[in-house]
Design goal:
It is built from 19 helices and twelve strands. By secondary structure, it is an alpha/beta fold. Strand 2 and strand 3 form a beta hairpin. It folds into four domains: 3-135, N-utilizing Substance Protein B Homolog, Chain A (Orthogonal Bundle), CATH 1.10.940; 141-176, no CATH class; 183-238, Sun protein, domain 3 (Alpha-Beta Plaits); 241-448, Vaccinia Virus protein VP39 (Rossmann fold, 3-Layer(aba) Sandwich). 49% of the residues lie in helices and 15% in strands. Bound molecules: S-adenosylmethionine. The site of S-adenosylmethionine has 19 residues, from helix 14 and strand 6. One of its GO terms (biological process) is regulation of DNA-templated transcription. It catalyses: cytidine(967) in 16S rRNA + S-adenosyl-L-methionine = 5-methylcytidine(967) in 16S rRNA + S-adenosyl-L-homocysteine + H(+).
Length: 450
């Protein structure tokens, strides 16, 4: 890698970090945009991703390290702060980059983007850190505050998780959230077997491993599966293993009539439709036209003709469908997404406790509104990609208290993949990211009494 290319990558990472923070926009979307716009070479994509995600992931710890060396944080332009964070990230967490190289590159960027004085300041701060070392996190005596800083999770969230799940589980979760997630795909069994799909991808140059958890899932050890020819031919869907469990819990059978009430972009609808072997009908509803278009595109790519989409507010579906219409209903509710922080690290700093309260009331009203559409004896699955008792257990408990014609479905364990069954004791399941390395996810299976 030439020095010039490296400078460009760091500068691109710095610009990305500025934009992500300013616009509070999604890091994954902006990263792809930056790769295409800056014509980042294939071999530099890895470094750009690592620098951007790593600096975002570790932001609070990096600020803790920088604090004694910056007199007035507020006086510095945003890009200088991001440049300093980015460089300290390399110095602390990336062994393969020598400190002097990281500092040299930062000073060059500061010269180019600012003036001599700024370059001197950047050089001074970084050289002092190199000479005097980092402040120790052991100085923080409160264990919750220390964990929050060490793993860069907001204090309110760490405190909330500790009170809900205990310190040890929270620590494991915060630590795994700092690691890069694997890319997982669900093979479209209506088109091809898992073995055949793995072989096709290996012939394309990917390195594939079979999921030990989900019988139709594969893991990509090398390469972005979305760029494969097999993807274009609809042989698989990119989806996390935890998300695949929702269709298992629902257990839809051939020729049934199924509602997916919050369906876009269609990850679970298409899984359900595949499990029904392209028979029956899946009604896939979402609030937004542009998102519903994605469900249609995915269904087309996968060759599934048993999905019918509908742009609606699912709280109003009783105006469109008669009571007791569906054999099964999935409500994969809008949620705080605390289970997918590894994929969207910027989210850690934008979510607030208020968001969780607001969501809990939306989830409650969605559940109450779709429930009457279920046939007697039918199955209702409630799921979220979050780890929070208010949005999960509490939402379901309140629903059951107010709707005595529903009960927990204890038989759902038998429908789940074998590897998951030992985790299930009742009618619901909270998956933590540290359980299998998959996303944090919650599923509750309910039944309408006959
Ligand atoms: C967790 S995402 C669904 C992911 C989807 N099930 C999948 O597997 O691809 C939640 C979805 O709910 C939709 N949504 C939010 N409020 C809604 C409402 N009142 N009615 C219908 N859809 C809603 C959002 O637009 C979002 O696409």
């Amino acid at each position: 890698m030439t020095t010039k290319a490296r400078t460009n990558v760091r500068e691109a990472a710095m610009d990305l970090l500025v934009t992500i923070e300013k616009n509070q926009s999604y890091s994954n979307l902006l990263l792809n945009h930056a790769i295409n716009n800056n014509q980042i070479s294939q071999k530099d994509i890895g470094l750009l991703t690592e620098l951007t995600y790593g600096t975002l992931q570790r932001r609070m710890a990096l600020d803790f390290f920088l604090k004694p060396y910056i007199k007035d944080h507020k006086k510095l332009a945003d890009w200088i702060i991001h440049l300093l964070r980015l460089t300290v990230y390399q110095m602390v967490y990336l062994d393969r980059i020598p400190d002097r190289a990281a500092i040299y590159e930062a000073v060059e960027i500061a010269k180019k983007r600012g003036h001599k004085g700024i370059a001197g300041l950047v050089n001074g701060v970084l050289r002092s850190i190199q000479r005097e070392g980092l402040p120790s996190l052991n100085e923080v005596s409160d264990p919750i505050e220390r964990l929050s800083l060490e793993t860069s999770h907001p204090l309110w969230l760490v405190g909330r998780w500790v009170s809900q799940f205990g310190y040890d589980k929270t620590k494991e979760m915060c630590e795994i959230n700092l690691t890069a997630p694997m890319q997982i795909a669900r093979v479209n069994l209506t088109k091809i077997s898992r073995d055949e799909c793995a072989q096709v991808l290996e012939e394309e140059g990917f390195e594939i491993e079979k999921s030990p958890i989900i019988p139709e899932a594969i893991r990509s050890l090398k390469g972005n599966l979305a760029t494969s020819i097999a993807f274009k031919y609809g042989m698989f869907t990119i989806q996390d293993e935890s998300s695949m469990l929702a269709a298992y819990a629902l257990g839809a059978e051939k020729n049934e009539f199924v509602l997916d009430a919050c369906a876009a972009p269609g990850g679970k609808s298409t899984h359900i439709a595949e499990k029904m072997q392209n028979t029956g009908e899946v009604i896939s509803v979402d609030l937004h036209q542009h998102k519903v278009r994605l469900i249609n595109e995915n269904a087309r790519r996968l060759g599934l003709s048993n999905i019918k989409t509908n742009v609606s507010d699912s709280r109003l579906l009783q105006e469109k469908f008669k009571q007791e219409t569906f054999h099964r209903i999935l409500l994969d509710a809008p949620c705080s997404g605390l289970g997918v922080m590894r994929r969207k690290p910027d989210m850690k700093y934008t979510k607030t406790e208020k968001d969780l309260e607001r969501l809990s009331s939306i989830q409650q009203s969605l559940l109450t509104s779709v429930a009457p559409l279920l046939k007697k004896g039918g199955t209702l699955v409630y799921s979220t990609c979050t780890v929070d008792k208010e949005e999960n257990e509490h939402t379901v408990k309140t629903f059951l208290e107010n709707n005595p014609e529903f009960e927990g479905d204890l038989s759902f364990k038998n429908r789940m993949p074998e590897a998951i069954q030992p985790l299930i004791t009742g009618f619901d399941l909270q998956i933590f990211p540290q359980d299998f390395g998959s996303d944090g996810f919650y599923i509750a299976a309910l039944k309408r009494k006959v």
